UniProtKB/TrEMBL annotation:
Name under which the protein is recorded: Uncharacterized protein
GO MF: DNA binding; DNA strand exchange activity
Pfam families referenced in this protein's UniProt entry, alphabetically: Recombinase, Zn_ribbon_recom
Organism superkingdom: Bacteria
Domain Recombinase zinc beta ribbon positions: 70-122
Organism in which the protein naturally occurs: Ruminiclostridium papyrosolvens C7
Ranges where the Recombinase domain occurs: 12-46
Alphabetical list of InterPro entries matching this protein: DNA_bind_recombinase_dom, Zn_ribbon_recom_dom
Length: 136
């Protein structure tokens, strides 16, 4: 976003003197300065978050993966992943989130933290969001 900080200078030679004119923000920016700053802060926050938790690529949020790469295990610091617990009985089929380190080594239990039901997680998230909004 160079346009926001860009200074344009005109050099005019007149009798050996050099006059400079600085025109700041001569073009209307595509987005306002505050929005741009907020985006930069969010980008830095995400980068630090990904580095801290060793996340290679953050998925875009869709209805299916709202919490992808955004739930960090309180026990081991791993990332929670979405799993579908299948059953022949459709009524028992569940979507849960569990620590990716739970069975990092096949057949051996790693992290002991519990799974959380997709619906419960969503309701808690909604509740916390509403609480946060209510404080404003
Ligand atoms: Zn864990």
């Amino acid at each position: 976003m160079e346009a926001l900080t860009q200074r344009i200078s005109f050099h005019i030679e007149n009798k050996g003197e050099v006059a400079q004119y600085y025109v700041e923000e001569s073009h209307p920016p595509i987005i306002d300065r505050d929005t741009w700053k907020a985006v930069q802060l969010e980008r830095e926050r995400r980068k630090a978050f990904m580095e801290k938790y060793n996340i290679q690529k953050m998925d875009y949020i869709t209805n299916d993966n709202t919490f992808m790469d955004r739930i960090i295990c309180g026990c081991c610091g791993g990332v929670y992943g979405r799993k579908i617990w299948n059953s022949n009985d459709e009524r028992l089929k569940r979507t849960v989130w569990q620590c990716n380190n739970k069975y990092a080594v096949k057949g051996r239990k790693g992290c002991d933290n519990r799974h959380i039901d997709d619906e419960v997680l969503y309701m808690r998230y909604l509740f916390l969001s509403l609480m946060r909004l209510a404080k404003i």
